[in-house]
Amino acid sequence: MKGLLKRSALAGGILLFFAAGSAFAADSTPIDTGVTAWMLTSTALVLLMIPGLAMFYGGLVRTKNVLGTMMHSFVAMGIMAVLWVVVGYSMGFGSSVLGGWFGWNNDYFLLKGIDETITSAGVPEYVFSMFQGKFAIITPALIAGAFAERVSFRGYVVFIVLWGLFVYNPLCHWVWSADGFLFNMGAMGAIDFAGGTVVHIASGVSGLVAALYLGSRRGHPKTAVAPSNLVMTMIGAGLLWVGWFGFNAGSSVSSGLLTAQALTATQVAAAAGAITWIVVEAIQHGKSTALGFASGILAGLVAVTPAAGVVQPAGALALGIAAALICYGAIIIKNRLGYDDSLDAFGIHGVGGIVGSLLLVFFIRKSWMSTAAEAAGGSWTLWQQLGVQAAAVGIAIAYAAVLTLIIIFVVNKTVGFRSSTEAEMQGLDHTYHGEQGYGMLNPR
Amino acid sequence: MKLITAIIRENKLDQVREALIEAKITRITVSRVSGHGQQLREEIYRGAKVVPNLIPKVRIDIAVNQEFVDITVNTIIKAARSNAKGDVGDGKIFITPLEECIRIRTGERGGKAI
């Protein structure tokens, strides 16, 4: 057990923590109030990211779609939270079933068996479960950026239910559960500290598939789609940055050295990404935009998400810069290709997640590599780790793409996903909610 | 020269605008307004049905030369009606004589400035 815990402290917590957690199920581990307090805070911080995302996305769409777009995030808070308690936690963190496709543990059904469980980290299992549940909320909400302004509310609701069950939960199990196959690949598993593959690559790739399948918005790309409220977008980006401390530093499932390392890497990468983005803009267009700064923050944060537990500040700086440059390029390429990933769910989250998951191997701290070499029985090179990372990334891309395609096909043929032309002209707010977001503001 | 002012439903703006562009009427001004007409629009507010005092509408102003008045008006009517018969609340069109029109950039006056 000690070996396990040590590895968890080094390798990036949640995974191993859980292994330890289930083994201790009915045990009387004392509650570590320090860790528990930080995990409670982190849980709240990650939840804060979802209204932050709603504001970020909501500000970027036209006035007639602002409520519909914000509801894509908010309704995920309702649906995914309920699903998580009913089956999600069990599918993500139960023991492997069906050849390891996902997990299952009867005790986790409605969380009925963890009422008094304290995990080996000294945290009530409720807290760990709720913390993980927030990731299950934000991931499908991120996808909504790819098909903004053109999907029916009902179709979206059915889509995220199916996507959560068949894409998020299995991926979560593979990467973070103690018996997940990606968790055990190579010397010390594929490195995904806080969700580079599970959250960002999965949502970004799924968004790309959805955007391609559902087609562009009317008039795209000829009609300019002016953001309704960039002020709100900036506030949303700020909330995301703040919330990301819970997302990354909370993923250490501890309150100590690893937490501090993750928090520092997060801050450095976000800042480096934001600055890089506006410098590139200034060189290319002569002006640095507010939206560019916000995009750079996100690119940096996304890239450091898988890496936060294993890189030092210099590495985080490099990842932030690389992510901003590559995501900026990806969006230029998107505009050339002409597909309508409306709010760049793939351009930022998909691309940024891939960049972070792969490039992190060049910046892993020495102590991690030596522990990995020990675990591998002698030597472990960064190229071997790169192979593991590439395999995890490839599997996440392939799995998310194929399953998303099937789910969208089914949803579109049954309840209908793509809005009708008339609904799209009238806007999501009027068509699906019977409300309007902006009182007397001028239409755009 | 005439000034055509149309008050239409908010959710018909895209239809009207695109229909006008198709009819080659491309110079328009759009604003959000609210007011009273015959329409009583019920809204759902926290589960209760309420009738707001002022109903939000979109106002479109178009300055046209005489020969474009009919096509403009007909295009708006066709695009802004809720259904074939029309509904209370579809809006109104006002036409007023336009005394002068000046393009600021060049100082041109009259019909050619429109």
Describe the structure.
- The complex is a heterodimer of chains A (444) and B (114).
- Helices cover 67% and strands 1% of the residues of chain A.
- Chain A has 444 residues and is mostly helical.
- Chain A has one domain (2-430): Ammonium transporter fold (Orthogonal Bundle).
- In chain A, helix 7 (196-214) packs antiparallel against helix 12 (345-359).
- Chain B is α+β, with helices and mostly antiparallel strands.
- Chain B has one domain: 2-Layer Sandwich (Alpha-Beta Plaits), CATH 3.30.70.
- Chain B is 19% helix and 32% strand.
- Chain B has 2 helices and 6 strands; from the N terminus they run βαββββαβ.
- A 4-stranded antiparallel beta sheet of chain B has the order 2-5-1-6, covered by helices on one side. A two-stranded antiparallel ribbon of chain B has the order 3-4.
- In chain B, helix 1 (13-22) packs antiparallel against helix 2 (69-80).
- The longest helix of chain B is centred in the middle third of the chain and has 12 residues, at 69-80.
- Chain B is elongated.
- In chain B, 19% of the residues are buried.
- The mean pLDDT of chain B is 89.
- Chains A and B meet through loops of A and helix 1 and strand 2 of B.
In short:
The complex is a heterodimer of chains A (444) and B (114). Chain A is an all-alpha fold.
Task: Summarize the topology.
The complex is a heterodimer of chains A (444) and B (114).
Chain A (H helix, E strand, L loop, with lengths): L1 H10 L2 H10 L9 H28 L5 H28 L1 E3 L4 E3 L20 H19 L9 H24 L19 H19 L15 H20 L7 H29 L4 H15 L8 H25 L7 H15 L6 H11 L5 H33 L6 H6 L1 H6 L11
Antiparallel strand pairs in A: 1-2
Helix pairs in contact in A: 1-2, 3-4, 3-5, 3-8, 4-5, 4-6, 5-6, 5-7, 6-7, 6-14, 7-12, 7-14, 8-9, 8-10, 9-10, 9-11, 10-11, 10-12, 11-12, 12-14
Chain B lengths: L1 E7 L4 H10 L6 E7 L7 E3 L2 E3 L4 E10 L4 H12 L10 E7 L17
Antiparallel strand pairs in B: 1-5, 1-6, 2-5, 3-4
